[in-house]
Specification:
This protein has 251 residues and is of the alpha+beta class. It is built from six helices and 17 strands. It has three domains: 65 residues, Structural Genomics Hypothetical 15.5 Kd Protein In mrcA-pckA Intergenic Region, Chain A (Roll); 85 residues, 2-Layer Sandwich (Alpha-Beta Plaits); 80 residues, Alpha-L RNA-binding motif (Alpha-Beta Plaits). Strands 7, 8, 9, 10, 13, 14, 15, 16 and 17 form a nine-stranded mixed beta sheet that branches. Strands 3-2-5-6 form a four-stranded antiparallel beta sheet. The two termini are 15 Å apart.
């Protein structure tokens, strides 16, 4: 995947270096710095504007040296129902960490999340910088959901969903919504494309127009389509998919 990773200008900000190395997101890397857990050439660095040259400087987190890998890892998981989107659950409940090769790729983490009972595409990477950019609201990364809902939304409902729904945390951004199929039992399948990432957003939007979600599936994330992978399995992204992701993230 080297071809999909652009050459980095040096020197670079320390928090960006840590994110690119897969230590944490850029914001998480800043927290590590301000907590005094990061050192450069043996000196603790807490100033967020600090820069390093990965070819020359030795960067450590909690005393362990961190390297900027040439090849970050990007993979998609077809998340099944019943798994929490977390890499660790203190209560021992099933979580997505059990479905991906975290031992093979240290620093792997999910970009965003899906609810426990939602299935579909979940992106993982060791590239904290990429993950941070993809989740930033300014990039408007589309996520496509297939929702099985109670009843059949009428034109007014569809207009409300597409134009913006007032939720308890504010008005949603415009969405693209269409009815895919009407089922014999009176329910229906709809497709929604949103670029926000609020908690349980699709479910709350549909409930607001009185068509609660019965099942929810994410079929795409940005330029990625959920193809060539079985439910509960994962695959590495192709070079062209990584390149498209980087373009979407503005990197």
């Amino acid at each position: 995947m080297t071809d999909a990773t652009p050459e980095q200008p040096f020197p670079m900000r320390l928090q960006k270096f840590l994110a690119r190395a897969g230590v944490a997101s850029r914001r998480g890397s800043e927290d590590l710095m301000t907590a005094g857990r990061v050192s450069v050439n043996g000196q603790v660095v807490t100033e967020l504007g600090s820069k390093v040259d990965p070819k020359v400087d030795m960067v450590c987190v909690d005393g362990r040296e961190v390297h900027l890998e040439d090849d970050s890892v990007y993979l998609m998981l077809y998340k099944p129902k019943g798994y929490l989107t977390t890499m660790d659950d203190p209560q021992g409940r099933p979580c997505v960490a059990q479905l991906v090769p975290r031992d093979l790729y240290p620093g792997l983490y999910p970009v965003g999340r899906l609810d426990k009972d939602t299935t579909g595409l979940l992106l993982f990477t060791t590239d904290g910088d990429m993950g941070q950019h993809l989740l930033h609201p300014k990039h408007h990364v589309d996520k496509t959901y297939q929702a099985h809902v109670d009843g059949v939304p009428d034109e007014v409902d569809l207009a409300r969903l597409s134009g913006g729904i007032m939720l308890d945390d504010g008005l949603t951004a415009p969405a693209r919504v269409r009815i895919v199929a009407k089922r014999p039992d009176g329910s229906s399948d709809i497709e929604l494309v949103i670029h926000e990432g609020r908690k349980r957003q699709v479910k709350r939007m549909c409930s607001t127009v009185h068509h609660p979600v019965l099942d929810l599936h994410r079929s795409s994330f940005g330029p990625l389509e959920l193809v060539d992978v079985e439910e509960g399995a994962w695959r590495l992204l192709r070079d062209d998919e990584v390149a498209s992701l980087r373009e979407t993230a503005g990197l």
